[in-house]
Specification:
Blueprint (H helix, E strand, L loop, with lengths): L1 H18 L7 H21 L4 H9 L4 H29 L5 H15 L3 H7 L2 H20 L5 H9 L1
Helix pairs in contact: 2-3, 2-4, 4-7, 5-7
């Protein structure tokens, strides 16, 4: 099922993320991601008639906008780490996303989310579609070629 597939993908990425080390994140991309997220949440807050501080305190359980930015920064770091790993594997294994792959992935998003193309394009950029189509192919590659890891065994070993 789609749910099992998503859990499998998340498990694969969690195993890789836990063992991968990223020494440096692209600062410009990180800052842009943080700023875009804060802007989206601020627009959401205004849509409900709240200022950003009141909204993030209620919705995210943080004490201030600065704490919210720190929270978003941690999420952005995880997202960038995953993106770096996906791109590294794609490059190392010669995996690419064709124009047809990108179109198919975008159609899958349209079908899954039940949005119009215009609504989807308001949220995602062409670069996003390309990345997600590429990530989809990398996940397939990792699932087909990766070595299964027994998380329970490694957790037991860490505890000793």
């Amino acid at each position: 099922t789609q749910s099992d597939e998503n859990l499998n993908r998340q498990s694969i990425m969690n195993n890789i993320m836990d063992s991968a080390v990223v020494d440096e994140y692209p600062e410009k991309d990180m800052q842009a991601l943080i700023d875009e997220t804060v802007e989206k949440v601020e627009a959401e807050a205004k849509g409900y008639g709240y200022d950003l501080e009141t909204y993030v305190k209620a919705m995210y359980g943080v004490g201030s906008v600065d704490e919210f930015r720190q929270y978003i920064s941690a999420l952005a770091e995880d997202f960038m780490k995953e993106k770096i790993i996906i791109c590294y594997v794609a490059k190392a294994e010669g995996i690419t996303a064709s124009e047809d792959d990108v179109k198919a992935y975008k159609q899958l998003m349209l079908d899954t989310l039940g949005m119009t193309e215009e609504e989807l394009d308001d949220i995602y950029t062409e670069e996003d579609y390309i990345y997600y189509a590429l990530a989809d192919k990398v996940y397939d590659y990792l699932r087909e070629n990766g070595t299964p890891v027994d998380n329970q065994a490694s957790d037991d070993t860490k505890a000793e």
